[in-house]
Fold this protein.
Amino acid sequence: MANIRLQPNNPTDWQKYASSEAVTAIPLRYGDNVNNRSKLAIHRGVLLDASAVLDPEMHNLNVYTDVLAFMTEDITLNPAKYGTVNIVARVLTAAKPVTLRVPSGDAATSAISIYARVLDQPISVCMGDSKPVALDLGADTDNVGVAVAFDSGEMVVEYLKKYPYDSHPELQASLETELRIALIQFWINSSIAISICSYVAVITAGQKSYTMLNTQAVALGQQLAGRVMAGQNMTYAPVLVLDTYKDTMQLALTAASAFETQYDRFQDKATSLKEQIEAWKTMLAKATESQTMQGKLRDSAYQKYQDAAKAADSCDQQFRFENDAVQNAGVHFQDGIEKWKFEQKLKAIKEIITAVITFAVGIGEMCVGNPAGASGAEKAVEAAVEAEKIANQVAAKVTSGTFKKLKDVVKALGKLYPSVSQMVKAIKALESNPSVDVPSIAEISGTTKGDADSSAIATMAAWDIWILESDDQMAFAITAGIEGATAYQLALRKHAINGKQLVQIQAEAVKAGYEYVQAQMELIRCTKQVKDLQSLIDSYTGQEDVYFKAEVQLYDRLLALKTGVVNELQNMVWAYRYWALSESKLVLDATKSIEDYDSDLYQIARDMETIDEQYPSDFQGFTYYEESDKLPFNFGELLVKGLTGETYTGSFTLAPNKSLAGVFFGGSHYRLSGLDPTLRGALPKKKAVKDGVVIVHLQITTSGIYEDIRDGQVFRFASLPQSRQCSYELNENGERGKTWDNPIFETKYHAEPTPFTQWKIKLLNPEDVDLSGLVGVDLKWEGHVRFVPSQFLGGKLKE
């Protein structure tokens, strides 16, 4: 994904946001209801000027807004005696620190409540000329609001941890507008979108009347949070070839174009009532038709989640094995550290190395869902901080900052991942039972600060830093001759690599799960709005209030259609990235014109066609033969142990760096036609032999997390796990005979995987095969690759 843009942080930039074409296209953004007679006032908007909406001498004043701007440093709040002022805003913005001043007189007996999650400047409150009290609000606190009571010359400040129940129609209208903005900002500025989703989720959590709004906010926000966690270099890799998405996008574009034409006609003030109703009816018919398409999108999203969840479970099983291995190796290594006689200047490094052992155990437990691991990880962070304070020391390779960042990302994901399965289960039940209770969730990113400011969300880049720094630190330990260091380095490498695989696929499961939730909620919303629009048109004779109600719902239907277009364009952009190993320059935006989408479609198709022009020749085919004992680290030994273990499943991991690439280095754009394994040393069980052979049935799967490399830059992708069957004849001498099911074949409609992933090989019929003599697995790889002028060729140094 693109670099994370920060939110605006001053009134000028927030005004640009609020007056942008994307935001101003949303109907019913503002609402004012002021009754000077009864001294009641309500103001609702996207950006409101505090000086204009904080009406004086009101008994009851409510302000609901996305952004409340203080244009001066000193603002007077002057409610009536016993009056109340209630401000509910996502952002309080100002150019300089602000003081809210309540004058003496009637206003000195009143109450003010302020709810806000983002403060661009410090806000203080005072009565008359008394000393201002700074309000402890914002992303760095757990306070969602503050209640300030003024009585008999005294001011009492009370901080609030949750929003009160508020069913006012203007608040609901404000929150609905917020989610419309979030849908737009999903593509434009993820920081704003996450902040809005968090704001809506916190307000609506636990409130039955706001269940749908809460679910919509959480679905949208956690998709974005998952993207941010995954990092800028991780995207989805569509499983089908580009033309499939191109055809689907063309259909979506045609539907959106027809709807937009009628929407513009409906909004045209010069249109007659008859033409307006005709446009309305046409859009209503198309919205009804779109329910079928929305149902297909929902079903597709659910399958995508199912695949991601299965892959996560598979990675979890493998990582638990690595967890045990690193803990066992750590015990022996810890003994070696205690025996190590070190110079005084290496005391800090000794403490850091010990902290690495503690941290690896803690982070491993956190990854498999054991909350007790957080305590160990935190102790390691504290130990590293203390070690860094020791004077006159040789610098350690691992820093306390590395510990902390990795702990934060795993801790946050530990909050998000378990909840997604509960939410998906409830939403799936909702398809057939509308009375199902849907979980109510208040958190979006797993951290309060990250909810308000997405730049505070820890990313998977923390794993890469941990892998490098911890390995360098263990290299030092080996050089220093610490007993057990070599074995521990090997165990820690595999632990870190497979731990990263696990949390990456968990993050993908979070995104996929909430993509399904969003699709189902959009289908429910579409169905409801179709009914509402039909009811409204039956009684429409030009009434302004009916027109406005219809306009905002028709806008929602148009935005949904355009979002469908952008989703297909996103698939094409991702397919381009996977195929070209290059970033597309297209800007995704759900508010573009149909003409702009046509241009985007042409551009991405043209870019795909011209990829080959960057290279002097076609892909080059390869066939590599590799024995399992030549795999990186001791993966070959582990592969054999796994195949002969209880599950008859062995695994290994490849990555595009020299120590983990195996035979795949020296080129780029590695794409596989398949992997064909042969069990070396396996024999038929006599009772299973027929005509001198048994059939060996193997299943070959990948984790669904892939990498590739171009010009030294690593590209990361998440996609569906690959699964292929391989079967061959095995004679009584242990020799391989005819192949029955060939796992190597060229694909026509599906994208080919890269070799850089976690591989699993499982024996499906252990009752027929004797593995007591298994000594290895012979791996045959076939595929194609691009080579640039280099000293390397096919994984071998040129002679």
